[in-house]
C-alpha cells in the first residue's frame, strides 16, 4: 500500500529519516544543528499534561441526545435543546473512576463519573453526573479531605484503609453512599450497564423567570449488570482496561450503548415541605416520592479518532449552563461551578475552551482575549472592550426571582448536622436489597473494613452500620472483630458531636 502522508518536521518540511541523527563521522558526538532530533526529543519530554486530580482514569465517545418529550420539558424550562421532539444534539461523554490515577484499573470499587457535553444551538451545556444518586458529603469544604483519604498515604504512598474508614466513620452523612459503594453497584460491569444521576437539584427556568427544582437521571438501555467483588478483583489483574475496551469495541461493532433520560421536578413550594432537604446531596428524592418523566434518549455512536484530543482534553463543568438550566443554592454544586473551570485552566490552559472538543458550535463573542495557546483567531478585529463605536448585542434574559432560595427555614439549614433522618436512606437501601445482594454488601464491607488496623476506626464504622439495622451491624461486627457500640441521637457519641461542633460555627445554611 502506498502511504498517503509524507513524513515531515514540525514545520512541514519533508524529511527522509525518522530514525536519523547527525553526528561527526560514523561514531562521533551528535550535532546541535540536528533540528529534527532535537524537536522530536523535546516534544516527547512535554507529552504529559496534569491528569485530572480526581476522575483521572476514563474513557469516552461521541453520539447524540434526542428529545422525546418536549411537551413535558416546555412546561418547566426554556432550554432550547429540549424544545422540539426529535431534535438531535451532538454530545461527547466521558466515563471515569474517581480515586485512581490515569493508569489505574477500570473495575476498582469506586463511583463512576458520567459526564455529558451537549453542543446545543445556544451554547455548551455540561451535565457532570455520577453513576449514583447521592454523594459522600454535603459540605464542599470536606471534599479535599475526603479525596485525600481515598488516595495515597503521604508517607507510604499506599492506599490506606485506615485513613479511608477514618474519614467515612467521622463524617457519617457519607453512610448511604458508602453502602451503595460497597454493594455490587460499586463494581459495575463496564460503563454501559450503569445509570447516571445529576445528584444535585438544579433549576429549570422559563421565559417568565419562574423556576422549579429538577434532577436528571439516565437509565441504561443495556440493563444493570455488576461484577461481584471476586470478579472485579480478578478483572483488575486480567484486564485493567476492561471497560475502556468494552466501550470502544461495542461502538466499533455497531452496538451503540444508550440511556433514557428522565427528569424529576419539584416546585419551590413543594420543596419547602418535602420530607428531606432538597439541596442535601446525601439524600435521594426517590422515584416513589417524586415521579420521573422521560425527556429524551442518549446514544453513543462514534469512537474518538484520537483519545488525547477528544477525551483527555475534554473539559466538563457543572457551571457550563445554558438558558433555562440554572444552579441551585446547593453549596456543593456552587463550589463545583468554581472548581472545574479552575482545574481546566490549570490542566489545559486559560484558552481551554478553544480546544476543538470544548468549542461551542455557535459563535463566541466576549472580551476574553490573548493568553497562551490562543488559536482560534482571538475574536479578530472586534473591540476588546464594551465599545459604543462598535456595539455588541446584549440579549435580554428573564429576571429570575431568587427570593425563595434565601430560605432560613428548616429545608436548607444545618447541612452538616447528622441526625436520625440521615439513616432513612441507608435503611431504605438495605431493605431494597435481595438476600444475595445483602450478603455481598456485608462481605464486601468486611473484606475492606476488616483490613483497617485501628480498632477505633472499625468500631466507629460498625456503630453506624448497626444503627441502620441491628442484624446488619452485628454481621459486620463479627466479620471485622469488634463489639457493637450504641449510637444514640440527638446527643450521639463524642466523636460525632465533635464533627458537628466543628462544622456548625461556619455554616450559612
Ligand atoms: C471531576 C471537583 C463533587 C462528578 C472533577 C475534577 C475536579 C472536581 C477538580 C477534575 C476536573 C478536570 O480536571 O477536568 C469536585 C469538587 C466536588 C466534586 C470540588 C465537591 C465539592 C462531584 C460530584 C459529582 C462529580 C457530586 C457528581 C454528581 C465529577 C465527574 C468528573 C469530576 C463526572 C469527571 C469529569 C470528566 O470526565 O472530565 N471533580 N467534584 N464531582 N467530577 Fe467532581
Automatic annotation (TrEMBL):
Chain ranges of the Catalase core domain: 8-393
Domain of life of the organism encoding this protein: Eukaryota
Enzyme class, spelled out: oxidoreductase
MF term (GO), any: metal ion binding
GO cellular component: mitochondrion; peroxisome
Keyword field: Heme, Hydrogen peroxide, Iron, Metal-binding, Oxidoreductase, Peroxidase
Known EC number: 1.11.1.6
Binding site for heme: 340
Reaction catalyzed: 2 H2O2 = O2 + 2 H2O
Active site: residue positions: 55, 130
Biological process terms in GO annotation: hydrogen peroxide catabolic process; response to hydrogen peroxide
Cofactor list: heme
Entry annotated with the keyword Nucleus: no
Functional description taken from the UniProt entry: Catalyzes the degradation of hydrogen peroxide (H(2)O(2)) generated by peroxisomal oxidases to water and oxygen, thereby protecting cells from the toxic effects of hydrogen peroxide.
Similarity remark: Belongs to the catalase family.
Protein name: Catalase
Species for this entry: Cerrena zonata
Amino acid at each position: 500500500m502506498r502511504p498517503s502522508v509524507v513524513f515531515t518536521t514540525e514545520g512541514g518540511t519533508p524529511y527522509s529519516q525518522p530514525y536519523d541523527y547527525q553526528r561527526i563521522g560514523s561514531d562521533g558526538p551528535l550535532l546541535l544543528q540536528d533540528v529534527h532530533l532535537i524537536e522530536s526529543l523535546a516534544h516527547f519530554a512535554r507529552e504529559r499534561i496534569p491528569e485530572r486530580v480526581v476522575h483521572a482514569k476514563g474513557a469516552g465517545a461521541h453520539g447524540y441526545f434526542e428529545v422525546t418529550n418536549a411537551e413535558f420539558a416546555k412546561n418547566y424550562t426554556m432550554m432550547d435543546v429540549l424544545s422540539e421532539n426529535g431534535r438531535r444534539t451532538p454530545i461527547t461523554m466521558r466515563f471515569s473512576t474517581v480515586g485512581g490515577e490515569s493508569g489505574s484499573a477500570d473495575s476498582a470499587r469506586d463511583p463512576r463519573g458520567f459526564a455529558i457535553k451537549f453542543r446545543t444551538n445556544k451554547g455548551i451545556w455540561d451535565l457532570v453526573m455520577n453513576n449514583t444518586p447521592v454523594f459522600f458529603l454535603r459540605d464542599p469544604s470536606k471534599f479535599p479531605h475526603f479525596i485525600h483519604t481515598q488516595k495515597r498515604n503521604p508517607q507510604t504512598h499506599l492506599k490506606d484503609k485506615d485513613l479511608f474508614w477514618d474519614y467515612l466513620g467521622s463524617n457519617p452523612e457519607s453512610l448511604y453512599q458508602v453502602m451503595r459503594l460497597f454493594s455490587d453497584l460499586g463494581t459495575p460491569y463496564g460503563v454501559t450497564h450503569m445509570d447516571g444521576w445529576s445528584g444535585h437539584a438544579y433549576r429549570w427556568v422559563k421565559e417568565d423567570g419562574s423556576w422549579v427544582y429538577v434532577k436528571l437521571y439516565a437509565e441504561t438501555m443495556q440493563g444493570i449488570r455488576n461484577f461481584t467483588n471476586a470478579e472485579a478483583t480478578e478483572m483488575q489483574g486480567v484486564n485493567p482496561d476492561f471497560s475502556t475496551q468494552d466501550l470502544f469495541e461495542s461502538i466499533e461493532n455497531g452496538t451503540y450503548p444508550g440511556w433514557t433520560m428522565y427528569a424529576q421536578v419539584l416546585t419551590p413550594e413543594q420543596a419547602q415541605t418535602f420530607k428531606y432537604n432538597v439541596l442535601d446531596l446525601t439524600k435521594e428524592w426517590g422515584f416513589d416520592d417524586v415521579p420521573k418523566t422521560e425527556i429524551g434518549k442518549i446514544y453513543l455512536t462514534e469512537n474518538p479518532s484520537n483519545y488525547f484530543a477528544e477525551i483527555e482534553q475534554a473539559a466538563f463543568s457543572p457551571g457550563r449552563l445554558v438558558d433555562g438550566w440554572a444552579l441551585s443554592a446547593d453549596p456543593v454544586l456552587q463550589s463545583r461551578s468554581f472548581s472545574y473551570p479552575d482545574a481546566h485552566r490549570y490542566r489545559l490552559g486559560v484558552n481551554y475552551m478553544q480546544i476543538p472538543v470544548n468549542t461551542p458550535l455557535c459563535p463566541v463573542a466576549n472580551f476574553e482575549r490573548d493568553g497562551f495557546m490562543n488559536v482560534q483567531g482571538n475574536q479578530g478585529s472586534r473591540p476588546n472592550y464594551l465599545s459604543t463605536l462598535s456595539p455588541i448585542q446584549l440579549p435580554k434574559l428573564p429576571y429570575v426571582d431568587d427570593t425563595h432560595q434565601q430560605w432560613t427555614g428548616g429545608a436548607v439549614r444545618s447541612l452538616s448536622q447528622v441526625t436520625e433522618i440521615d439513616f432513612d436512606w441507608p435503611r431504605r437501601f438495605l431493605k431494597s436489597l435481595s438476600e444475595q445482594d445483602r450478603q455481598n454488601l456485608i462481605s464486601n464491607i468486611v473484606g475492606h473494613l476488616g483490613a483497617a488496623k485501628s480498632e477505633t476506626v472499625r468500631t466507629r464504622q460498625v456503630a453506624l452500620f448497626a444503627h441502620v439495622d441491628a442484624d446488619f451491624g452485628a454481621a459486620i461486627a463479627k466479620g471485622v472483630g469488634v463489639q457493637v457500640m450504641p449510637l444514640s441521637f440527638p446527643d450521639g457519641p463524642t466523636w460525632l458531636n465533635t464533627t458537628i461542633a466543628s462544622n456548625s460555627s461556619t455554616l450559612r445554611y
